[in-house]
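To fix ideas at the outset, we first show an illustrative case, written as a sequence plus integers encoding its fold:
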Amino acid sequence: MAVNESYLDYVQDQLSDFGNFEIKRMFGGIGLFREGLMFGMIGGDTFRLKVDEHNQADFEEMGMKPYFNKSKKKGMPYWEVPASVLEDRKLLSAWALRSYEAALRTKK
């Protein structure tokens, strides 16, 4: 799952209101980390944020679903970010903060 560099640049730019975070290349994708905790990921041209019971309804209301690895037959707590959220820096920053808070709660 290669990552499109221009898409990565776009996501980073859109997250500029969110504050400091790190990008780590992993398993053919990208992990987004703050203070050592992964709150988001990019695979190919898809940006996903960490979800738990505190922010899941936001994603469900927008028709989003969790990431599912078909080869491992396993889901992950990362859901695709709706295009309308990704395009709105302030809204994206709020969603990213809630995903970081989900990472804090699970410490993963």
Summary: The mean pLDDT is 91.
